[in-house]
Specification:
The chain has one domain (2-189): Orthogonal Bundle (Arp2/3 complex 21 kDa subunit ARPC3). Helices cover 73% and strands 2% of the residues. It has eight helices and two strands. The chain has helices at residues 2-36, 51-61, 64-79, 93-96, 100-117, 125-154, 158-165, 170-189, and strands at 38-39, 48-49. A two-stranded antiparallel ribbon has the order 1-2. A hairpin with an 8-residue loop joins β1 (38-39) and β2. α1 (2-36) packs across α3 (64-79), α2 packs parallel to α5 (100-117) and α2 crosses α6. The longest helix is centred in the first third of the chain and has 35 residues, at 2-36.
Length: 194
């Protein structure tokens, strides 16, 4: 009987692992789709896009490790030449360019979102507030990575990097954080959160 239980556990583990990898790939693809929706802003080299929505949502839905993996998959696709970065850009040069820090922040943000929000099938106001707080902190992480590299690469003062690479996006990113929280709540109700 013990051997049968072990086989069942191994099969369940394999199925769960395959599902996790598929979901990580799906969220990487969603982030790529979010990059297609871009609005160039004339006063900054950083365009408005929907990528951040999927980065934040990955931290709630997949948890920290898988969320980070999903964003690493997204970055790898872009680095190897698929035009998945905002504006259809691709290649390793994007990672070392003025907006590369935001991409690196995409990998770290789901870890922070998950640490604050937790994960799993939860309900209630407190759960929603934790999710929203986690997503807002995830945005801050993206800003820290992004503005730091923007300042370094574009030879800007920190305050100038913040005025170009953070301030124009705060309102939109707060809306994306709220939307990620709202979507996570509805996905939980349908049992679609790991």
């Amino acid at each position: 009987m013990r051997q049968h239980d072990g086989q069942h556990d191994a099969v369940y583990s394999d199925i769960h692992s395959a599902r996790s990898i598929i979901l990580a790939g799906l969220f990487g693809a969603l982030t790529a789709v979010g990059a297609v929706v871009t609005i160039p802003l004339p006063w900054t080299p950083v365009p408005f896009s929907l990528q951040v929505l999927f980065v934040l949502l990955s931290g709630i839905v997949l948890g920290g490790k898988l969320g980070a993996m999903s964003q690493a998959i997204y970055i790898i696709l872009g680095v190897i030449g698929l035009p998945v970065f905002s504006g259809g850009h691709a290649g390793p040069g994007v990672l070392v360019g003025p907006t590369g820090g935001y991409l690196l922040g995409f990998v770290v943000a789901p870890l922070v979102v998950s640490m604050v929000a937790g994960r799993g099938r939860r309900e209630g106001t407190w759960s929603g507030l934790k999710d929203f707080a986690g997503t807002l902190l995830g945005v801050v992480v993206i800003y820290i990575f992004g503005a730091s590299q923007l300042a370094l690469v574009a030879n800007l003062t920190p305050s100038r990097a913040i005025s170009l690479g953070v301030l124009p996006f705060i309102a939109g990113d707060v809306v994306k954080a709220f939307l990620a929280t709202w979507l996570a709540r509805h996905l939980r109700r349908r049992g679609l959160v790991l």
